[in-house]
Amino acid sequence: MTYLRLETMRLYRNKRLVIFSTLMPALLLLIIGGVSVGGDADARKYVMVSMALFGAMTAAISSGGTIAVERGLGWNRTLRLTPLSPGAYVLNKVFLALLVGVPPVIVTFLIGALGLHVRLSAAEWILCAAGSWLSSLPFAALGVVIGYLAKPDSVQQVSALINLTLAAFGGLWVPVNLMPDALRYIAKLTPSYWTGQVARSPLDHGHIDGQAIVVLLGWTVVLALIALRRFRVDTARA
Length: 238
Fold this sequence. Notes:
Structural class: mainly alpha
Order of helices and strands: HHHHHHHHHHHHH
Oligomer: single chain
């Protein structure tokens, strides 16, 4: 808990990460939702939830950059001298990545409600917000993996490329049902497609898609195990 508290304070002092992951989806929402889709209320809802999810994804993946920096500074050598276990370290990093995903969801939903006049029921607001935030869990684990695979001087570029690629193929920019058949098939192989299903399903069904939750949990477990393995390998070399 001490390590978690210190890391939380350090994470929120990283203003560049918090501001970038919050402002970018908000600006995209204003441009796409306010200009491109115009008066289509359903389209504005779709864009708002997608951009909230994109912000949470961006924050979760980008937080892995701190791991690459820590590796470059030799922080892992210090951690080996503490009682902190590999599993606790990975869980801490995943939890921190989720925390930094809160501001993008809140700001994007506020802009959608106040700026674009998106109207949802109370249940839809709560479920869509919770789905947008919690469905970024596999990307939090992915950020940890990237932090252990990428070099400190290239981790930001790698994270951005993976993030944008997953967003594009997962249906955050263009609805999957408007894509060609081949791209629809590829979309369903990405975790971002299933995060979209979780976050947007309350708009269509009034509840969160159970199948999508199971798929996302599978992605999260696999990526977390890879992250744990990379941590052990990295500390063994330190």
